[in-house]
C-alpha cells in the first residue's frame, strides 16, 4: 500500500510493510510503520468508504471502525513502545556471528528496561501520545471502568493514566517477561548440563545445529 505525499503530511514512510508471522524483525517493522502512517491510513480508508461500494466498502468500513477507537490507539502506542526495544535484539539474534553470552546479556538488558518502564512513569508519555493521536482523528478518549473498591491490586489507583497502564501491562507484559525468562532459563540449563567439548560453541548457528537432533526442544519466540 502506497500513500501519496499529500495524504501523509506527518509521515516519512510511503509504503506499509506486510506483517510476517515467522520473521520477527519484519513483524516489528510492520507494526511500527503502521503506527507511523496511521493518520494517512485513516484518511485513505475514509476516502474509500465514500468512493467505493460493495465488498471494498464493507472491508474498508470494517477496518476503519476497528481502528477508530481509543483502546486500539493506546494498545498500538504501547506495542510500539515495547517493539522499539525488542526490534534491535531481534536483528542481532539473526546475526550468525553473534556470541551466545552476548545474546543472553542483551536479552537480560531488555527485560530490565521493560521492568523499569512498568515501575516508572513511562506510561504517562505513552498515554499522552495516544491522546494526541486520538484527538487528531477525532476519537473520544475513554478510560476503563473500575470498581469503587479494588481488591486485586496492591494499592488504590486513582490516576486514569496509571489505570490504563496497569490494565494493559497486567494482562500482557508480565506474561511476555515470564516467557522470555523461561527461554533464557531453559537455554542456560541445557548448556550447563552438556559435557565440555573441544570445539566451543560461540554462535547462534552452532547452537541451533546442536538442537536440531532433538537434544533440546526449545522454541524461541524472538
From TrEMBL:
The organism's place on the tree of life at top rank: Eukaryota
InterPro entries from the UniProt entry: IFN-induced_PKR_regulator (IPR052958)
PANTHER family, per the entry: 52 KDA REPRESSOR OF THE INHIBITOR OF THE PROTEIN KINASE-LIKE PROTEIN-RELATED, DUF4371 DOMAIN-CONTAINING PROTEIN
UniProt protein name: Uncharacterized protein
Top-level taxonomy: Eukaryota, Metazoa, Ecdysozoa, Arthropoda, Hexapoda
Amino acid at each position: 500500500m502506497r500513500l501519496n505525499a499529500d495524504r501523509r503530511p506527518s509521515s516519512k514512510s510511503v509504503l506499509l510493510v506486510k506483517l510476517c508471522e515467522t520473521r520477527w524483525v519484519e513483524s516489528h517493522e510492520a507494526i511500527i510503520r503502521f503506527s507511523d502512517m496511521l493518520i494517512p491510513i485513516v484518511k485513505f480508508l475514509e476516502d474509500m468508504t465514500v468512493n467505493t461500494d460493495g465488498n471494498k466498502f464493507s472491508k474498508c468500513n470494517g477496518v476503519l471502525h476497528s481502528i477508530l477507537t481509543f483502546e486500539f490507539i493506546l494498545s498500538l502506542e504501547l506495542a510500539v513502545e515495547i517493539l522499539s526495544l525488542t526490534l534491535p535484539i531481534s536483528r542481532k539474534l539473526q546475526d550468525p556471528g553473534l556470541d551466545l553470552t552476548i545474546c543472553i546479556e542483551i536479552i537480560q538488558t531488555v527485560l530490565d528496561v521493560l521492568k523499569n518502564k512498568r515501575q516508572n512513569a513511562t506510561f504517562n508519555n505513552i498515554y499522552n501520545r495516544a491522546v494526541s493521536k486520538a484527538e487528531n482523528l477525532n476519537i473520544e478518549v475513554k478510560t476503563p471502568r473500575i470498581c469503587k473498591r479494588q481488591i486485586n491490586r496492591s494499592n488504590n489507583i486513582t490516576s486514569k493514566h496509571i489505570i490504563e497502564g496497569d490494565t494493559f501491562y497486567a494482562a500482557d507484559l508480565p506474561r511476555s517477561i515470564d516467557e522470555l525468562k523461561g527461554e533464557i532459563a531453559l537455554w542456560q540449563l541445557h548448556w550447563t548440563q552438556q559435557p565440555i567439548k573441544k570445539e566451543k560453541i560461540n554462535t547462534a548457528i552452532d547452537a541451533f545445529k546442536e538442537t536440531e537432533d532433538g537434544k533440546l526442544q526449545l522454541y524461541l519466540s524472538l
